[in-house]
Amino acid sequence: MRKDNWQVIVISPSRKYVAELLPLISNEMADASLVELGGYPTAQNILDLPMNSSSNICFLDVLSDRQQAMSTIAALIGRKADLQIVVLVEEANPNLILQFLRQGAQEFLMRPFSQEQLRQVLEKLSRLNPSLSAERGRVTALIPAKGACGATTLASNLAVHHKKISGGRVLLADLDPLTGTISFLLKLKSTYSFMDALHHASSLDADLWKGLVTQSQGVDVLLPPENPVDSIHGLESALPVIEFARRLYEHVIIDVGSIYGDWTVSIAKAADEVLIVTTNELPALQATSRGLQYLENAGVRRRKLKLVVNRFNKEAGLSKEMIEMALHTDVYHSVPSDYENVQRALLEGKVIPVTTTFGKSVFALSQALLGKTGKESEAPKKSAASGVFSGSLTGIFKAFSRG
Question: Any idea what the Cα angle at residue 265 is, between residues 361 and 25, rounded to 5°?
Fold first, then answer.
């Protein structure tokens, strides 16, 4: 049973209940998105709750105020009929539990809450509701640490390699509302974009979706709008589109335009893994340091983040060892510089052949992400005292200090 895509809502005025329950939820559903309400919500609060996923579960304290809890259940079900509600009770009171089950709750947790009790409740809910346990596609988001790091090129090539290696359905989604270029790179054109998918999120189905995507080399592609969105700050969360895509595809590759902003954070939190794409040049790596810190501060789990060094050039930038020391982060994969072959393929709107240096490396990255092989052999090692940074390393590492 997968629980990493669930959205969890905890409603309780009791700080004691919450303090006992949250660690158990964190252990059992580590990557679930969590909303905590420290009191019974108003009607407007309930309307504002994030319930776009099909996998919503609400833990509701029914003892702090039974009448309020009863009204809250009715309002929650009115907002989302298939919401899974688990009531929190102090003791095994059959009459009380039955009263709330009749009102619409599915299960109950009795104090003292335990990991085993929570696990049993989640398993039971999954058996009763197949949508909770259904296999969902894996989402990989590629985010550039700064502009022109090559994240879009990597995303488009990864999608095609994922298709060839896995044989499953693959979606390549350009969710960059300002400067999305996948349509240009792959020579594609469509009347529709991901903005249309967002606007119709509540009524999306397989037939409507077919009209929104186009195809390239066996991969479905969701394009960005032709005209830049007026304000990225006005965009809602990307979660509705991502969650719908999970149900249709085994693999979803998302190209993201910038490392900053709520839009990017919503994508990074929804993704199973986030590839931070950089180069081994000093300005890009300093931007990477700041970007990693930003995502962590925004609540994106560090274990999701994988550092990919694109256009690795051992003669013109930091070595792998220096990058890892400066960023306090392992380099997950490095892609060697292969300018001529990359440019030729881009001009033709095609995937870069696996016979090229770049193509071989990206194919190996795809295999690693799909679990088909170990990580790519590391980038060529280089003495910390060689190359253009052979002067003083102290200043370089100081530039990357994160406090």
Answer: 105
Of 70, 98, 133, the residue at which a domain comes to its end is 133
Q: Which two structure tokens, joined as six digits, stand for 122?
A: 């989640």
Asked if 202 and 51 touch (Cβ cutoff 8 Å), the reply is: no
Residues 254 and 142 in one domain: yes
The torsion defined by the Cα of 50, 208, 31 and 277, in degrees rounded to 10, comes to: -120
Residue 265 contacts residue 242 (beta carbons within 8 Å): no
Establish if 2 belongs to a structural domain. no
| pTM across the whole model | 0.67
- Give the range of the structural domain holding residue 188, as residue numbers without chain letter: 138-399
Q: 383 burial class (0-12, 13-18, 19+ CB within 10 angstroms)?
A: exposed
> Alpha-carbon distance 274 to 182, whole Å?
18
Q: Are 181 and 260 in contact (CB under 8 A)?
A: no
What is the H or E stretch that residue 67 is in? Answer: helix 66-79
Q: How many CB atoms lie within 10 A of CB 304?
A: 17
Total domains present in the chain:
2
First to last CA, the chain: 40
Stretch (H or E) spanning 364: helix 357-369
pLDDT in tens, the chain (403 residues): 445 457 889 999 999 989 999 988 877 776 677 889 999 999 888 888 877 555 688 999 998 899 999 999 999 988 888 889 999 988 778 888 888 888 889 999 998 898 888 988 888 887 777 655 556 689 999 999 999 899 999 999 999 999 999 999 999 999 999 888 999 999 999 899 999 998 888 788 888 999 999 999 999 999 999 887 655 556 778 888 998 898 889 999 999 999 999 999 999 998 999 999 999 999 999 999 999 999 999 989 888 999 999 999 888 889 999 999 999 999 999 999 998 988 888 888 888 999 999 999 999 999 999 998 644 444 444 444 444 444 445 556 566 654 4
Long-range contacts of 360-367 (CB under 8 A, 24+ apart): 361/333, 361/334, 361/335, 361/336, 362/154, 362/157, 362/158, 362/161, 362/335, 363/161, 364/333, 365/154, 365/158, 365/161, 365/308, 365/333, 365/335, 366/158, 366/161, 366/162, 366/165, 367/161, 367/165
Does residue 378 belong to any structural domain of this protein? yes
Examine the fold and report which residue of 133, 167, 186 is the final residue of a domain before the chain moves on.
Answer: 133
Residue 87 DSSP code = E
- Are residues 338 and 357 in contact, defined by beta-carbon separation less than 8 angstroms? yes
